[in-house]
Every structure is written in C-alpha cells, then in structure tokens.
Design brief:
alpha+beta, binds adenosine-3',5'-cyclic-monophosphate, 4 strands, globular, about 20% strand
C-alpha cells in the first residue's frame, strides 16, 4: 500500500479534557507519523467552511457550535494507507458502535463530541490538508 497523508482534528471535547498527548500516542502506535500540527480556535466561518459538505444535514448547526466551543488541534498524518489506517484507529463515528481499543471507544463522549475527525478519502484529505496547512508547514 502507498504512503498517504490524511487530515486529523482533535476536537474540543478532547482538548478540554487534556487528551491531546494520549490521542497522539494512539496515532503514533498505529504507525502514523504526525508531520504537521497546530492548535487553533476556529471561527464560525471557518468551521462552516470546513464542514460545508454537511450543511444540509440536521446536525450541521450543532456540529459547528461544538467545533467552535474550544480549541482544536489540526494535524497531517503520514503513513502506509494513512486515510484508512487513521479511520481504523479512530473507530466508528458513533462511539457506541466503535470497536474496543479505538480512540472513539476510549475517549468520545457522543456522536457529536467524538474526539477526532479524519478524512474519508485520499481526495478529501488533500482538500482538507490544504484548508489548514501551507506546504511549508508540512515536514514529512
Ligand atoms: P466527523 O468525522 O468530524 O464528520 C462530521 C461530524 O458530524 C461527525 O464526525 C460527527 O462528529 C458529527 N455528527 C453529529 N451528529 C451526527 C450524526 N447524526 N451523524 C453523523 N455525524 C454526526
């Protein structure tokens, strides 16, 4: 499998509980390298733009409010099949359905406050990485 990059976000429920290091350790233990990382307070406009694909969904407004409720840590992860590997280590969107040992099973509070985001395809990963990072900030 090819070396890929994917966009990861540690969400406000996790930064609030000081879980950044434990989540990073889980990502690294899964073979993913954190090749860019920064902590941000998103504006409403930024959160709406990032999640624009979900704007018709019933949960969009609550999702945006949640994502601006505290700091996030945005990251670029690199590794073999990084998009799928990250989704494996994150677990299912709904923590009630997430497998044992996954980040969401261990840490998520709800389907909304689910601790992490990960790109769902290589194509979306490129778009999402470009949303948050300039090329000079990514050191592979
Ligand atoms: P994420 O991977 O960041 O992408 C969209 C987010 O919407 C998702 O994780 C969830 O945190 C959030 N969300 C809130 N409610 C729902 C829902 N009912 N179904 C799917 N995603 C939801």
């Amino acid at each position: 499998m090819a070396i890929e990059r994917t966009l990861s976000i540690i969400k406000p429920d996790a930064t609030r509980r000081n879980l950044t290091g434990r989540i990073n350790a889980a990502l690294e233990a899964a073979g993913l390298c954190i090749i860019a990382q920064k902590r941000l307070q998103l504006t409403r406009g930024q959160a709406e733009a990032f999640y624009a694909v979900h704007r018709e969904r019933g949960f969009f407004h609550d999702l945006v409010n949640f994502m601006i409720s505290g700091p996030v840590v945005v990251q670029v992860l690199e590794g073999e099949g990084a998009v799928a590997r990250n989704r494996e280590v994150m677990g299912a969107t709904d923590p009630a359905k997430a497998a044992e040992g996954t980040i969401r099973k261990l840490f998520a509070e709800s389907i909304e406050a689910n601790s992490v985001h990960g790109s769902d395809s290589a194509e979306n990963a490129a778009t999402e990485i470009g949303f948050f990072f300039a090329a000079i900030e990514i050191v592979g």
